[in-house]
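Suppose you are handed a protein chain with no further information: no name, no annotation, nothing but its sequence. What can you learn? This example shows the usual starting point.
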Amino acid sequence: NNELEKKFRDLETTIEQLSLLSELAAAVSATLDVEKIYEQTLERLVHAMGYQAAYLFVVDPGRRVVRGHRMAGGVEAEMRFRAMEFSLDDRQAGAARVAVTGLPLVVDDVEAPDQPIDVPSARALGIRSVVLVPLRVKGQVFGVLSVASSEPGGVGTADMELLAAVANHVALAVDRAESFQTIEGLSRGLE
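A reasonable first move is to predict its three-dimensional structure. Written in structure tokens, the prediction is:
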């Protein structure tokens, strides 16, 4: 009986996540403004999907860095986050590692030894556990999306699949918006 109840709860959670994912996909597809896409994604991750904090890093290939761009949740830490910047060669910076490898990263506890995360930065943001996934268009990573918790194990592997699905929707919406802007710019040039 307990096993059946657990399966039912898991099924309810999955249905809820799919519903929220569908709402997020509709919201980010409804705009061609890249910053609006980012804002809506982060706000929905925190307010609709219940994550404590959500972060977006963008890759600056010219300077070979990944930097804090936007966040939701923990508003008092936003200035610290936006000032964060990591070299793409920094293997201890989780966002840089995800940007370079294109692979997601789950850190159950940033205070555990040998975690691939910049611990002082995590502490400055009050992060104890974090999931980071790449934002990729046409095989190129242009950013890193992450969710975090102030509790060890507060986010983990189960969250990675949902966040990867969110990242796919965001990447498609950003690609569509940037393509539209390119076409619009070319059209203006022909006038």
